[in-house]
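Subject: for your reference before the review

Hello V.,

The reviewers asked for a structural picture of the protein, and I figured it would be easier to keep everything in one thread rather than splitting it across files. Below is the amino acid sequence we used in the manuscript, unchanged from the supplementary table.
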Amino acid sequence: MSRGSIWTVVAITVAVTSISSAMAADATAVRQGGLWVTCEGFDGPGKGKHVVLISGDEEYRSEEALTQLGKILARHHGFKCTVLFAVDPKSGAIDPTVPDNIPGLEALEKADLMIIATRFRDLPDEQMKYIDEYVASGKPIIGMRTATHAFKIAKGKTYERYSFDSKVEGWTDGFGRRILGETWISHHGHHGKQSSRGVVAPGMKDHPIVRGCEDIWGPTDVYTVRLPLPGDSKPLILGQVLEGMKPTDKPVSDRKNDPMMPVAWTRTYQGAKDKAGRVFTTTMGAATDLESEGLRRLLVNAAYWCLGMEDKIPPRANVEIVGEYRPSPFGFAGHKKGLKPADYAMKPAGR
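And here is what came back from the structure prediction:
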C-alpha cells in the first residue's frame, strides 16, 4: 500500500504531570484511539504543501465538510491534509458541542495553509496559542461559513481579541473582522427557508478562483455583511437569495437582492511582522453546500490561490467526491453521535 493511499489516524503525544489515575486512563484511551486524521497526499501540484483544516461548529457539520474537502485536496491535488475536530476529552468522540477542545492544533506549526470553519470556540490558551502564532506568521487562511464568528472568548482572557464581539483596540469584532473581513452580523436570507445561488461579481469572471465555477448553489442562506467590506477586500461571488430550498427556485423579488451580499471574497491581512497573508472567505460552506460541484471547485481553487499557486489552477479542477459523501442536514444537535476521527478516514484507493 502506497504512503498516500490511506488516511492515517494520528495519536496525540502529551506529557501528563499530575492528574488522577481515572483521568489518566481516559487520556490514554483517547490517545490510543486517535484524535485527528492526516493524509500524506497523492500526486499533484500540491505535493509538499501541508493544509490543516479545523472543524468545530454545532450547526453546519464542519466535521463532515472539511473531511471531504481534505480528501479532495489530498487525492486529486496532492496536498497533505490534516483535519482537526472538536473532541469530547473523555470519550474521544467528535462532539461539536464541546467548545473548548480541538486537539492537534500544533500541526499549524508546520502548516502552509489553514482552513477554518469553527463557531464560537472558547479554546484554552495552550491550544489558542497555535492559532495565534499561525496568524502572526502571515500565512494564508481560508475561512468558511461560521468562521466569521469562529471564537467566543471571555473578556480578560489571553486571546479575547479573537472573540467575534471583541472590543480590544485594533481587533474590534475579533478574528472575523480583522482577519477574514467580517464578523457575525445576521442572516440575510431566511434561514432554513431560502437558499443561495452564487453569482460571479461584476469584473471578476477572469479571476483564477472562479475558474470553472459556473454553477454554485447551497441550501444555506446568505449572511449579512457590511458594505463595502474593509481594506483590500474584493468580492468574488455574490449571494442571490432564492425563494425556496431548491436550486431551481427563482430569486426573491424584494430588496434582499438589491444589493446582493458578497458570499465569497479575497483580501490580505498583516501578520505580526507586517507580512501580508492571503485570505479567502466564504459565508457558504455547510456540509450540504459541498454537494455543489461549483462550490467545491471554488474552495479548491482558493487553496491554490492562497498558496500563491494560481498558475496551477486548471480550467476545471477535479473536485470529484472521494468515497461516500452523504452530508447531514444543518441544524443544532444534528451531528452524528459517537463517531471518532477514524470513522472519517479515507479508504484505500479503489474501495
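For the response letter, the relevant points are probably these. The helical segments are 21-33, 62-77, 125-137, 174-180, 293-306. The chain has one domain: 8-186+260-344.

Happy to draft the paragraph if you're swamped.

O.
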